[in-house]
Design goal:
The complex is a heterodimer of chains A (about 110) and B (about 110). Chain A has about 110 residues and is mainly β. In chain A, the strands form two sheets. In chain A, strands 2, 4, 5, 9, 10 and 11 form a six-stranded mixed sheet that branches. Chain B is about 0% helix and about 55% strand. In chain B, strand 4 and strand 5 form a beta hairpin. Chain B is mainly beta and about 110 residues long. Chain B is globular and about 35 Å long. The chains are: A mainly beta (about 110), B mainly beta (about 110). At the A-B interface, strand 4, strand 5 and strand 10 of A face strand 5 and strand 10 of B.
């Protein structure tokens, strides 16, 4: 079945780059997403990438996709304390009927 | 445009009781999905409704049910509550089922079962 895996924790210093990794199993996934959840809030979409792309950049965010290895990463440049949150990787199938989320990576940013 | 709203925000119930949670999607959005978030299991898909029809369902027991009204508002119901049902229940709406399926999440309802 479909599964999305992420490491649970990541700690970085303010100003450094953060790289959050994700692996997925469903080869039919067409879109892959990164969501951010801040304390007491719902999830907020950060960015998404179509499966025929290998990279997408949006300001401080860079998404890399290795479709052969089913590996997705999110790089946050110049990480700030406000970036401290839980980051979820997710995939959806061709019809977009169902979105499968990873368990989330908790990012700690040390000042 | 108002975001996704969920009511109530917090709820405390006793084992064996039932509960109904409500979700109002963003105006114009016809798809509503429900998720259960727990520290141990992460975010798990419950079900998705589109135009009043359940189009997809996750692997949850029949105690979990939902419905969608003609104005796209949705409710989910959990009967015979168990301690393990304590979780944050998130609702998400989207304009259509994509792809891509860009979902907008509400703040969630935190349910505590004692």
């Amino acid at each position: 079945g479909e599964d999305v895996e992420q490491s649970l924790f990541l700690s970085v210093r303010e100003g450094d780059s953060s790289v959050i990794n994700c692996t997925y199993t469903d080869s039919s996934s067409t879109y892959l997403y990164w969501y951010k959840q801040e304390p007491g809030a719902g999830l907020q979409l950060l960015t998404y990438i179509f499966s025929n792309m290998d990279m997408k950049q949006d300001q401080r965010l860079t998404v890399l996709l290795n479709k052969k290895d089913k590996h997705l990463s999110l790089r946050i440049a110049d990480t700030q304390t406000g970036d401290s949150a839980i980051y979820f990787c997710a995939e959806s199938d061709t019809g977009g009927f169902k979105t499968i989320f990873g368990a989330g990576t908790r990012l700690f940013v040390k000042a | 445009k108002a975001g996704v709203t969920q009511t109530p925000r917090y709820l405390i119930k006793t084992r064996g009781q039932q509960v109904t949670l409500s979700c109002s999607p963003i105006s114009g959005h016809r798809s509503v999905s429900w998720y259960q978030q727990t520290p141990g299991q992460g975010l798990q898909f419950l079900f998705e409704y589109f135009s009043e029809t359940q189009r997809n369902k996750g692997n949850f027991p029949g105690r979990f049910s939902g419905r969608q009204f003609s104005n796209s508002r949705s409710e989910m119901n959990v009967s015979t509550l168990e301690l393990g049902d304590s979780a944050l229940y998130l609702c998400a709406s989207s304009m259509d089922r994509g792809p891509p399926t860009v979902q907008y999440f509400g703040p969630g309802t935190r349910l505590t079962v004692t």
